[in-house]
Amino acid sequence: MSEQEFMITMKDVNKWYGDFHVLKDVNLNIKKGEKVVICGPSGSGKSTTIRCLNHLEKFQKGQININGTELIDDVKVVRDIRAQVGMVFQHFNLFPHLTVLENLVLAPTWVHKKPRAEAIKTAMYYLERVKIAEQAHKYPNQLSGGQQQRVAIARCLCINPEIMLFDEPTSALDPEMVSEVLDVMVELAEEGITMICVTHEMGFAKKVADRVIFMDAGQVIEENEPHEFFDNPQSDRLKLFLDQILSH
Amino acid sequence: MAVYTFKEAKPAPSTSKGVVFWLRENLFSNIGNSLLTLLGIYIIYAILPPLLDWMIFDATWSGTKEEVVKGGARWIFIIEKFDQFIYGFYPEAQHWRPNLVALLSIAFILAMNFIPNLKVKIGLMAVYPIICFVLIHGGMGLEVVPTEQWGGLMLTILVATVGIIASFPIGVVLALGRQSDMPILKTLCVGFIEFVRGVPLITILFMASVVLPLFFSDGIDFDKLLRALIGITLFQAAYIAEVIRGGLQAIPKGQYEASESLGLSYWQGMILIILPQALKISIPNLVGSFIALFKDTTLVLIIGLFDVLAMVTLTNSDSNWLGFEIEGYVFVTMIYWVFCFSMSQYSKSIERKYNTEH
Lengths: 248, 358
Known about the structure:
Largest sheet of chain A: 6 strands, mixed
Number of strands of chain A: 10
Helix content of chain B: 55-70%
Strand order of the largest sheet of chain A: 6-7-8-3-9-10
Order of helices and strands of chain A: EEEHEEHEHHHEHEHEEHH
Distance between the termini of chain A: 41 Å
Oligomer: heterodimer
Strand content of chain B: under 5%
Number of helices of chain B: 13
Structural class of chain B: mainly alpha
Largest sheet of chain B: none
Largest interface: A-B, 26 and 22 residues
Radius of gyration of chain A: 18 Å
Number of helices of chain A: 9
């Protein structure tokens, strides 16, 4: 497969915080429409990896290509790339001073210069899709965690991204609310959007992922399709990790 | 195994409600509390009736100063000198102009609260100060009143308002500059803020009145009031910047990241996402700082401007009206209190307005 057909390529990406080497030669090629789950112990660099993809983190060495554009530290390039990449955060990061609807309309009108009426229509469409349209005029703090995370997903979809990044989207939720968020993510996956998801929800990984990647100490240790990944882990480190998270 | 059904909510028992319960719980819950309550009542009893007698029941409200017989406050002094306290040396025939500005200001504040259209608001914000300036200063057909004649409460309000409004945008920019990644910009902002906060307002007023003119060629006579306004604005901007910096630091990093990840530029993110939240948190401290400024404006006396307090002091030396200091200072105290208390109440109401927690 030639490089152009990959939606995302990361080539020998290295990152340091001061002297601390957080990412070590990370290589990753992701095809259009592929669903990739990244897991690993905390501090393994999995969040940092996906945060590099929309330039929330800078990297010092290596190369990243998003949909044919090389990601460099340039205002215009970064803006173009962010227009194609949506990100969902662990703590939702909705804007608390704006209503749900205003949260969704903001980027389309200010960044993508869409007429307000059209942006509202799109926003209501996506709120409908995440089954929360009746809350459109409430403020984020009036909603439950699961509802807030669904709003955050809808907010990303409003900019019509090619790629969705999920950074532990269910880790901050009460157990009762995890499934309503995962349901929305499964639906999205079925529609063929390119997805990279950092998560510990192994059920989700088995059900949705085309590929699961295991990271530790800033490197990719093992990657495989989910069936093999869970049933036939190769490295000792992954065996230990799976033992620990699946033992209960 | 056991399964339980849901229970209905019941009203709270009557012993935990009502006036008697409230009194017992809040005023007489134990011996110490009861003693403090009684002491409080005694202090109010000892102070309030004599004060009310002096201020209202025994006070003299009309007539001449020779007719005063009772021991109460002689408010005739205030009534006699009222115009001077309010307008300073502003010519009497022109008093309607500051009065009109006061009315316009009330109309302006109401319009800002009730007109939804942003363009109309911005238009008003641009026109309002020009109209006020022309009305008070003169020109365009109106007789010019030089700033040496401005004074009294009018001057106090003017200095405070200009100081508050002009310092606010400068303060925001300084606060953002202090957080900037650009080292030179950051150093300049930190240097300015720390310098200004390290010197008293009086020093800055002296500098504005003595040092500032040195920078200009001899021919230009820099207006004294303008110099004071520049000094006060720069002084206040440094404090505003620190208050807003506190608000900015309280905004979670996730808000910056979310606005960046949606593709908003630095200024879009600041204006649409970060500043509205940071300013909301800062309202109590901002208003505190505005109140402090309102009271500090009285220091313009030092450079020869006569604000309301200076006017009271001045009229006390009128040989026809000696010995009326107490009335004058009580009056000026009440004026300050009314303005500062109103600002504090207004701040509470906007805090409620922008509360999105519930």
